[in-house]
Each structure stands twice: as structure tokens, then as C-alpha cells.
Design goal:
This protein has 145 residues and is an all-alpha fold. It contains 7 helices and no strands. The model has no long low-confidence stretch (mean pLDDT 81).
Amino acid sequence: MASVDDDVIVLRKRQPKASQMKSVQAINAAQRQGLEIETSKKYAAGQNKQHVAAKNTAVLDRETEELRHETVGHDISRLIQQGRQAKGWTQKDLATQISEKQQVVNEYESGKAIPNQAVLAKLERALGMKLRGKDKGQPIQPKGK
């Protein structure tokens, strides 16, 4: 028969947590005890490397090619202005005709807009003149039946 007194109870000190092992006091204690300490430098530690530019700045400075979007040509913007003024419309009137904002018409007329084929098609229909292709500025011929 086993009695309660026969059970062995072992008391141990709890293992230190990883954060405690990294502290200056823990490192000093390990050095005093003569334990081996390994130190290593982490790659890019303490730096935010996830938002670094893809190219080096010096390489970008030496770059001769201009990196920007194509905008509406000066000839197309002139044609839009002339067509709108020939009909006696303001930019807002033309914008309502093509179901766009007045700012869109303004950007196309000033040559700042990035060409959108759908908007150019609406402008062609509203103004009644070609804005794309070889025969820019020519009136649109009604489709024959």
C-alpha cells in the first residue's frame, strides 16, 4: 500500500521568458556565470524597409526618359474649344450634353486630360466632328441607310 508520504515532490525554478533573456541584466548574469552568449545582427533591423523605392535615387536622376501619362494633344483641345464655341455652348452646357462634369470638359480643352476613348466618342457625337483618326476636325457623316 502506498501512503501519502511516499510521493516525491520536485520544486523547480520557472524558465525565464524570452523577453527576460534579452534584457541587459540577463546578459550580464549569463556572462558572470560563464555561459556562452550568441549575438547576431538582424538584416535591416530598426528600419522600415517595406516602403523603399524600387530604383535608387541616383539612377532615377540619371534617367532621361520622362515617366508621365500621355495627355490630350493641343490640336484636339483646340478642336473641342472651336466646336463648342461654334454651337454657342459653355463648358457646362457641353458637359451636360455628354453627361460628364464641367471639370472633365475643362481638362480636355486645356490639354491636361488623359485621353479616354468613351469621353472622346461622346464629345464627337455632341460636337458633330471627328476628334480621333486621320480626319480630325471633319464633320461626322450621318450613317447611310
